[in-house]
Amino acid sequence: MMTPAEEFLRDYHDRNPAAASELADRGRVGGRSVYEAFADHVGQPGSVLDLGCGDGALLAVLAGRGTGKLAGIDLSAKQLDVARGRAGLADADLRPGRAQELPFEDDSYDAVVSHMALMLMSDVEKVIAETARVLRPGGAFVIGVGGGGTDALEVFLKVARPLFAVVAEDRQIPTSGDPRSRTREGLDALLGPAGFASVEWHQLLVDLSGPPDSVWQTCHDTYYQVDALDETQLMGLRTAFKVASRSLVAPDGTLPAGALINVATTRLT
């Protein structure tokens, strides 16, 4: 049975099936896409399962790098519909469902990946146990988790948090995820009992800079809590953000903005 947080995530992404990859496409890591930079840490395994695969953007990058057996699971059927239309994913095994109950056979994948999804999952110990079950011995688990924003994204959170805190109870976004899945120490504590080695920790700095209106839209699309705001609250937030970030705008009109993604890599021992 899905939790309230999972129901929200499913419904949100059914309404906005391309939102996650469109947001990722706005950022660059050393001139390349976020998914390309993340895929560098996955390598070229023969088979990959993506937990929270969304609309298949990461799987498509891995397909282009030569991975032949591709699979994914996601709560949103609409996102999976988009994924099935991507180049390289016609034969991918894409299924709706929860990562706590994977519908895949034991020892069937060389690598499991989860980009900005594990950190949103409940019962994370079950997710990790299922990951260990479907991985082959020595298989890789590569996890991307949010590490916070810089510049304009940091400013956005400062002005938005007080507003998020006073949203009416019937409009509040359900809390999702386990805080342990967002830190190196927490992941080691979760992964070790399931047979994984200590994680290696890498950091990606995603450049999201651009014109102020573009950066506002990026901030708007980054945080699920914005979905709880009514039109008046949203207009007020936009005005407050523009005022608070005005001093950061460069002479050429660019508003600097960035996001950190921490990439944890480990193997099943």
TrEMBL record:
Alphabetical GO biological process terms: methylation
Keyword Ion transport: no
Key words of the record: Methyltransferase, Transferase
Domain Methyltransferase type as annotated: residue spans: 49-143
Enzyme class: transferase
CDD domains: AdoMet_MTases
One Gene Ontology term of the molecular function aspect: methyltransferase activity
Keyword Cell membrane annotated: no
Listed EC numbers: 2.1.1.-
Protein name as it appears in the record: Class I SAM-dependent methyltransferase
Biological source species: Amycolatopsis halotolerans
